[in-house]
């Protein structure tokens, strides 16, 4: 059996605003520990016996982050680049069509990039069981034993047993209200984790039966794709012919081959800030703090700062998230309502809902400082060996070294540019960049 891991890397993580935004969504943020959830997913796969090189499905706007974060941890990947977002159905179908070019009966382990899984060994055991069932022709989803009557997850009603604890799926049900979720818990329902295992040919047969436009678009977008290094750019014209549907609606809720494998690992989709608090290490008062934060007489608080100092005194059960351009404060049990705030910001045309004030690309982070009538000032932070095109203006090296033409510049140097100049950091470097308007 050939096992091909495929990671879906899309979405914007609306409920994790202001940290997660479309320009830098949650799967690339280091929300728990020193690695992003995307990197943690790659690490788990690296330990998976017999797994082939991971295939990542993402959009063009996330390609750089996908490649950069994989390189940071030394994982070689292939990336399928979607020309546009058409939900998970076409994305997964394109991945299946691509895997068929490598191994017609290859088993795919389809994972989300933004989930948190604690016990890697238990995950590997569950994935092995699911892959075996998939090799036998089942389309397998991972069902997680609920720990509480959550209203934030879809549920699965397990049916008759198959082998190794795998059972047929009797029904998929949508996110319930609290009372219904309590009933599901009592009746042995499972959380639907949204991770799958299936043979590429089996899934494509189901797409051809239920959603033929998706199957055709997937095959043609792969057949006519353009290769560029690690990236395979799916053909735009072919891909646009796919119906815009999730894999749940397109296949899982209609197929007779659906099965559910037991997932005994601790799992969260990190869908909202209360889930981050729940998955984070906490002190004896139930607090989780990161960044420049000081807590006094607080209990059950998640406080994070990616910029300003945050002081918290005498409160309980709050979420406090500070970014350089936005601060969120709400009760922990009202975390799902962050989406309402984001929707209102969108209605008002506020750019802070779409992108961070500190832009990051190619290992260079740019932070606006001030803009006056005659000048625009920014701090540029360059990672080791990263290249940047400096604009015409005045440049001061605050820390580190950069190489450009005709010479190197080091900490304390100040120079003027009449036109753009390309430089490369020698080690990390910080620059003060002033454009004269």
Can you put this structure into words, describing what you see?
With 437 residues, the chain is of the alpha/beta class. It has 11 helices and 27 strands. The protein has helices at 37-46, 63-72, 88-102, 120-135, 178-186, 200-210, 212-223, 236-239, 247-252, 273-279, 338-347; strands spanning 3-9, 55-59, 78-82, 107-112, 116-117, 139-144, 155-161, 167-173, 190-199, 226-228, 231-233, 258-263, 267-268, 288-290, 293-296, 302-305, 310-313, 318-323, 326-331, 359-361, 364-371, 375-382, 387-390, 393-403, 408-410, 414-417, 421-436. Strands 20, 21, 22, 23, 24, 25, 26 and 27 form an 8-stranded antiparallel sheet that branches. Strands 6-9-7-8-12 form a 5-stranded mixed β-barrel. A hairpin with a 2-residue loop joins strand 18 and strand 19. Helix 3 crosses helix 6 (200-210). The chain is globular.
- The radius of gyration computed from the alpha-carbon positions, rounded to a whole number of angstroms, is 24 Å
Note the gap between the termini: 62 Å
Arithmetic mean of pLDDT: 93
Low-confidence stretches: none
Helix content: 25-40%
- Percent strand equals 35-45%
Q: Which structural class best describes the helix and strand composition?
A: alpha/beta
Q: How many β-strands, per DSSP?
A: 27
Gross geometry: globular
Total helical segments = 11
Major β-sheet profile: 8 strands, antiparallel
Quaternary: single chain
Keywords:
437 residues; alpha/beta; eight-stranded antiparallel sheet; five-stranded mixed barrel; 11 helices; globular
């Amino acid at each position: 059996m050939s096992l091909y891991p495929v990671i879906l890397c899309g979405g914007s993580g609306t409920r994790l605003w202001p940290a997660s935004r479309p320009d830098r969504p949650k799967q690339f943020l280091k929300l728990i520990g020193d690695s992003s959830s995307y990197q943690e997913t790659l690490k788990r796969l690296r330990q998976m016996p017999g797994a082939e090189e991971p295939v990542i499905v993402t959009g063009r706007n996330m390609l750089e982050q996908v490649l950069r974060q994989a390189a940071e941890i030394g994982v070689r990947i292939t990336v399928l680049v979607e020309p546009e977002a058409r939900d998970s159905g076409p994305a997964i179908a394109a991945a299946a069509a691509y895997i068929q070019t490598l191994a017609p009966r290859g088993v795919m382990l389809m994972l989300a990039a933004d989930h948190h899984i604690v016990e890697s060994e238990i995950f590997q055991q569950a994935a092995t069981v699911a892959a075996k069932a998939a090799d036998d022709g089942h389309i397998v989803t991972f069902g997680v034993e609920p720990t509480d009557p959550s209203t934030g997850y879809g549920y699965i009603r397990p049916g008759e047993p198959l082998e190794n604890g795998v059972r047929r799926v009797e029904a998929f049900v949508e996110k319930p209200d609290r009372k219904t979720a309590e009933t599901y818990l009592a009746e042995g329902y499972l959380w639907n984790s949204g991770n799958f295992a299936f043979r590429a040919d089996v899934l494509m047969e189901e797409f051809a039966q239920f959603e033929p436009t998706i199957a055709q678009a997937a095959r043609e977008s792969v057949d006519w794709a353009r290769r560029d290094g690690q990236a395979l750019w799916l053909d735009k014209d072919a891909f646009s012919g796919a119906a815009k549907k999730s894999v749940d609606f397109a296949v899982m809720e209609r197929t007779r081959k659906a099965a559910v494998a037991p997932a005994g690992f601790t799992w969260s989709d990190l869908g909202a800030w209360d889930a981050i608090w729940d998955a984070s290490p906490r002190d004896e008062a139930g607090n989780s703090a990161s960044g420049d934060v000081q807590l006094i007489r607080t209990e059950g608080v998640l406080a994070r700062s990616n910029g300003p100092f945050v002081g918290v005194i005498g409160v309980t059960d709050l979420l406090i998230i500070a970014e350089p351009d936005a601060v969120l404060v709400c009760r922990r049990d009202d975390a799902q309502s962050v989406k309402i705030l984001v929707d209102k910001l969108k209605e008002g045309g506020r750019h802070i809902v779409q992108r961070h004030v500190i832009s990051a690309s190619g290992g260079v982070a740019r932070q606006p400082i001030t803009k006056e009538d005659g000048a625009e000032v920014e701090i540029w932070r360059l990672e080791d060996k990263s290249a940047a095109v400096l604009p015409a203006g005045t440049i001061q090296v605050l820390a580190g070294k950069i190489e450009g033409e005709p010479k190197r510049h080091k900490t304390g140097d100040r120079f003027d540019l009449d036109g753009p100049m390309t430089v490369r950091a020698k080690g990390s470097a910080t620059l003060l960049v002033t454009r004269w308007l």
